[in-house]
Amino acid sequence: MALLKMKFSQQRRVRLAQGLWLLSWLAVMCGAFIFCLGVYLKIELLRRDEVMEDTDIHAVPNLLMLVGLASIGANWVASRVCQDSLDASRFPRWKVLLLGWYAVAVLLCCLLLAVVVLSYALQGRLEESLKVGLRNGIRFYKDTDVPGRCFQKETIDRLQMEFRCCGNNNFKDWFEIQWVSNRYLDFTSQEVKDRIRSNVDGRYLLDGVPFSCCNPASPRPCLQNQLTDSRAHYNYEYQSEELNLYSRGCRQALTDYYMGLMNSTGPGVLSVILIQLSVLLSMRYLQTAVDGAMALESPEGESEGYILEKDVKATYAEVKAKALDLLKFAQVDPASEVAGAEEGEKAAEASAKAATTAA
Amino acid sequence: MPFLSLKFNLQKRVKLAQGLWMLYWLAVIVGIILFSLGIFFKIELRKRSEIMDNNESHLVPNLLILVGMLSCGLNAFGGKLCHDSLDPQKFSKMKPMLRPYMLLCCGFNVLLLLLVLLSFLMQFAVYLTLAEGLKNAIRFYKDTDTPGRCFMKRTLDMTQIEFRCCGNNNFRDWFEVQWISNRYLDMSNDVVKDRVLSNVEGKYLMDSVPFSCCNPGSPRPCIQHHLTNNSAHYDYDHRTEELNIWNRGCRQAVFSYYSGIMNSIGALLIFTIVLEAGDVAGLKYLSTALETMADPENPECESEGWLLEKGFKETLADLLSKVKTFGRANQVEEGGASPDADAT
């Protein structure tokens, strides 16, 4: 009892081959789309490389690129098989390859599902990586004269302006570190000396933020310094001022951005999985229908196409038996020797019993 | 003596028709590109209309959209003509449409030429509109409570950040206007009163710039206030300081952006003119080759195709005489009466 049997006349076989050829070229386009998606995601992650501590999240675009390339190759092979399928002399050479092709196609679908799952699962790692990276970025903001860190200031400024965020969690992160380099501090000034002496580490701490935290939508020209002192500025109330600076932290902003990117690619990836599965099923039908037709006396007649020759349980039992056979191939001779010795013993016992009962 | 005539056998005619069909469809794709470029340019102008006083001219993008649509339609029809031309029945049905179609294509080419000239000349208009618009934008920067101008501050800040520029010509434009609203000035403060009294119009002028003028690439945290006072900041010399704020003026920066777009539109239009001219020439060759077949029943026969029936000078002379007789239509009867009288 075959699984999901269908009858195929010659015309239907030709239609199936043509339809599958078109579908496999569509699947090649989808593979190219997945590859480009992977490349785009990788470039976006690499652009912000400086504020990320580790590269675990790069698994998602790497996997996408790999699957995209493999999918292009596999579906191109499928289109070649379709072209040869109606030619009885050329089709048999593909027979061996097709089993491997099915395995590759199933693997690709599983990998695509894994990508979707990974993109949700790695969100926590991404946040951790951003937390550490941004903390370092803010700490090294002032080191524009240290080789290897001289562009940290520009990177953080551009990041804050582009993503409309300030600091790691919020703007108060800037109050806790010295972001003005000592080169620009006048150490003879009393104010500077007071600030440096006011904390254990001897750092120049301010309740001020860099200009890149300023929100252009504020109706008032940006207030950057003495933010916690309501009397330092006219008509300014520290607790109720909302529009002056960006209120979001950069870690939240970047995480939202990357999660948004990966979520928006979700539907695309799922539809590619569906297309790949339909190519797989149609290929199986075409293979069985053409094989059936070639076995008939009149190749133009009707044949049957199915997904599995027997039903699921019987196929599973067959596959299991074959696998066990392969495993037991090395152990066949000792097992038969032992069986032979046991039989001999049993025969001896039986004859001894017979002798005693007779006697 | 036909102008630039060529001999055609069946194979050459078929090749010409196929090649011309592909050229026409290439021209359709170019038409679609022109259409999308027109929409893109229109959107870019609308995005920044606030710094251009809402006064900018949309002539070039509107014409470009029209030209794109016309090009798609005309060239799709031309492709259909080529496709049908090798079938004698369909060709005889189409023959009367060929001449008006080719005249229409020539007219379209003239329109394209006009548009090329416009796209190069309108850049002057954009420059002048920008200059005026930016001057007003800087003046109205502080009016975030005036209806109709409340987003001027945000627009100008975003423009300065995006185009990496400061002020109209340079950053000193900010020294000449009051860009802090009176709502945020403590009028009882002596410093404020001094500044307001120091000029005729009673404006609060400073040697400072808004934060959007700051250059993130500067090694030093941005200095916005007291820019011309060296002693106000440690280790600062305003004459040699280059990286602190953007040096370029926004008029120059925004204009070079729009100028780039308009130059590429002009270049694409020139390419389209060449393509269209090639299409019309090819169609003329094809139609004359099909018309001059010695034996219409035999498709294998040879024929001749040309661009103009008589030589170039003769065609010009013909056209001129036609134009002259066109004006003398009313006087034909008088001249006609005398030969009749002579004949009788």
TrEMBL record, chain A:
It is found in: Membrane. Its main location: membrane. The keyword Flavoprotein does not apply. Residues 349-359 have a biased composition (Low complexity). GO terms for cellular component: plasma membrane. Gene3D superfamilies: Tetraspanin (1.10.1450.10). The chain crosses the membrane at residues 20-40, 60-78, 99-122. GO terms for biological process: visual perception. Keywords: Membrane, Transmembrane, Transmembrane helix. It is a multi-pass membrane protein. Residues 338-359 are annotated as: Disordered. It comes from the Eukaryota. It holds the Pfam family Tetraspanin. Belongs to the PRPH2/ROM1 family. This is Retinal outer segment membrane protein 1b. It comes from Xiphophorus couchianus (Monterrey platyfish).
